[in-house]
Amino acid sequence: QVQLVESGGGLVQAGGSLRLSCAASGPTISNYRIGWFRRAPGKERKLVASINWSETEPYFATSVKGRCAISRDVAKNTMILQLNSLKPDDTAVYYCAAKAGNRDTYDFWGQGTQVTVSS
Q: pLDDT band at residue 28, thresholds of 50, 70 and 90?
């Protein structure tokens, strides 16, 4: 079982940056892939970025490529999503999720954190 707790959302001005943290726990977390999703108002949830817990094989959606990075705080067992040059279109509820490396679907989800980008 994997548990995920997110933090770091809030109100940010356009052009600014944010860091979202996903604290993970579970005996086999090292075997999982972490994904960051977002659901904008009135839209479907979409995958923004993902990476293996070992910080290999990163993926970034076209909408964030070039202004997004993922890193891991080993001491805190936390995956961090950094998003720069924020736009109002980045406004959404952001979720982190985890899936075992050989699965197609994400099985474990955080509670979500609201990010609002003001113009």
A: confident
How many other β-carbons are positioned within 10 Å of the β-carbon of residue 48? 24
Residue 101 pLDDT exceeds 80: no
Q: Burial letters for 78-105: b for 16+ Cβ neighbours within 10 Å, e otherwise?
A: bbbbebeebeeebbbbbbbbbbeeeeee
Task: Decide if 72 contacts 63 (C-beta within 8 A).
Answer: no
- For residues 87 and 13, what is the distance between their CA atoms, to the nearest angstrom? 8
Residue 108 CB contacts under 8 Å (≥ 6 apart), including other chains: 1, 2, 3, 4, 97, 98, 99
Mean pLDDT of 73-101: 94
How far is it, in rounded angstroms, from Cα 56 to Cα 33?
9
* DSSP 8-state assignment for residue 89: G
What's the pLDDT at 30? 87
Contact call for residues 98 and 77 (beta carbons, < 8 A)? no
Mean pLDDT score of the chain: 94
